């Protein structure tokens, strides 16, 4: 900072220095860095630095006005060389500059922006102060872009055009609508993912962003449009919830495991390995439907995710309680079998679509929700009528 402030004073070594007020006014505002308040030119004329290494007495060296002025410019340029910006000023300054550069007039730019010409001039000056060089030459009755101004005008024009294009894409009815869906990882991988291709074939202008998560839903804090969760219908009033379909609970295991550990009655499950989801449904309801009291299991393996539990069952590690939506493909392929015919009809418990208030009535959301309900009901229908 010290070198920057004293560079002009070094150049005005003697009273005979020909670094005139006119030269200072022309060069320093063009070269000064952002935020630098340089001493005014008429204050530099009386500067005294007798031991200056930069300039010597003009009479002794025989150097003229142009040499001295060139020295001034070179010193200031070297002082400001290598400056990099780490942040930008207000983007409104670039908007004002774009208008002024297009019209080549502060008055016409002010008319376009609905401000006064003095306001335009002031904001252009702020941008020039930040950049450290002039963008316009102020001429009588007009302004002209400097070389730096011409270069910046092209960049600003391109950037503003990109911003305008990006905003138009968001509201363009011909652009694809993106729905952000949050679903439990088990449902997403075992039931939803294999069907999404069909939906996108029916609605090519609707794209689905699928997020697999079991976290609680909070539309106020999470950027999503819809969610699918297992529940009993008790949802906050600000969330629009709709049941997909009425599902069923029943035990499953692998054919190999059932062959090695046959069970003739539900009571025989007491001494078998039970696979259970940490937050899954209790076995008590199924045992009650089968006419038995749930026994105290002696060997239980817990899983945080239903998909992992079903995969463990398919690999012959035990019995687990599941629903048809998750077990559909494995039952059809024979990886899983039902050791008992008893099922529990889930009247209120099941999968629900949860929709945020701001996107619930959007056409794309309505189409996707109707498609999900149709697919879920078709899945359950195939279970009831094999």
How would you briefly describe this protein structure?
The chain has helices spanning 2-11, 21-31, 41-44, 58-61, 65-80, 91-103, 106-113, 117-131, 147-171, 185-202, 255-260, 284-289, 306-314, 324-333, 363-384, and strands at 136-139, 142-145, 177-183, 206-212, 226-231, 240-243, 248-252, 273-277, 299-303, 319-323, 344-345, 350-355. With 386 residues, it is α/β, with parallel strands linked by helices.
Could you explain the architecture of this structure?
With about 375 residues, this protein is of the alpha/beta class. Helices cover about 45% and strands about 15% of the residues. It has helices at about 1-10, 20-30, 40-45, 60, 65-80, 90-105, 105-115, 115-130, 145-170, 185-200, 255-260, 285-290, 305-315, 325-335, 365-385; strands at about 135-140, 140-145, 175-185, 205-210, 225-230, 240-245, 250, 275, 300-305, 320-325, 345, 350-355. The strands form three sheets. It has a five-stranded mixed β-sheet, with helices on one face. Strands 9-8-10-7-11 form a five-stranded mixed β-sheet. Helix 6 crosses helix 8 (about 115-130), helix 6 packs across helix 9 and helix 7 crosses helix 8 (about 115-130). Residues about 1-60 and about 75-80 have low confidence and may be disordered.
């Amino acid at each position: 900072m010290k070198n920057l402030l004293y560079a002009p004073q070094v150049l005005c070594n003697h009273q005979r220095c020909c670094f005139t007020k006119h030269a200072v006014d022309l060069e320093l505002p063009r070269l000064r860095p952002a935020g630098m308040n340089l001493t005014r030119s008429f204050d530099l004329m009386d500067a005294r630095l007798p031991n200056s290494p930069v300039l010597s007495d003009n009479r002794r060296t025989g150097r003229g006005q142009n040499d001295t002025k060139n020295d001034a410019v070179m010193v200031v340029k070297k002082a400001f060389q290598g400056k990099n910006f780490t942040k930008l000023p207000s983007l409104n300054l670039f908007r004002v500059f774009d208008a002024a550069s297009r019209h080549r007039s502060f008055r016409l730019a002010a008319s376009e922006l609905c401000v006064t010409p003095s306001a335009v001039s002031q904001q252009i000056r702020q941008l020039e102060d930040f950049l450290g060089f002039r963008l316009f030459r102020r001429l009588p009755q007009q302004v002209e872009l400097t070389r730096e101004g011409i270069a910046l005008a092209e960049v600003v024009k391109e950037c503003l055009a990109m911003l305008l294009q990006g905003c138009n894409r968001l509201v363009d009815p011909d652009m694809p609508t993106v729905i952000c869906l949050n679903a439990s990882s088990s449902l997403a991988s075992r039931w939803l993912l294999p069907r999404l291709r069909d939906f996108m074939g029916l609605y090519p202008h609707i794209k689905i962003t699928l997020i697999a998560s079991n976290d609680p839903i909070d539309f106020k804090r999470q950027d999503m449009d819809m969610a699918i969760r297992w529940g009993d219908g008790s949802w906050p009033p600000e969330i629009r919830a709709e049941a997909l379909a009425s599902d069923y609970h029943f035990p499953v295991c692998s054919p190999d495991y059932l062959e090695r550990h046959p069970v003739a009655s539900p009571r025989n499950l007491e001494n078998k390995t039970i696979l259970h989801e940490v937050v899954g449904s209790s076995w008590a309801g199924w045992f009650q439907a089968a006419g038995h009291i749930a026994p105290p299991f002696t060997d239980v393996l817990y899983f945080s995710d239903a998909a992992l539990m079903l995969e463990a069952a398919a690999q012959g590690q035990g019995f687990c309680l599941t629903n048809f939506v998750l077990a559909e493909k494995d039952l059809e392929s024979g990886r899983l079998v039902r050791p008992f015919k008893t099922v529990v009809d889930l009247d209120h418990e099941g999968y629900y679509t949860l929709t945020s208030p701001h996107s619930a009535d959007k056409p794309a959301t309505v189409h996707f929700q109707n498609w999900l309900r149709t697919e879920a009901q078709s899945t359950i229908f195939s279970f009831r009528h094999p």
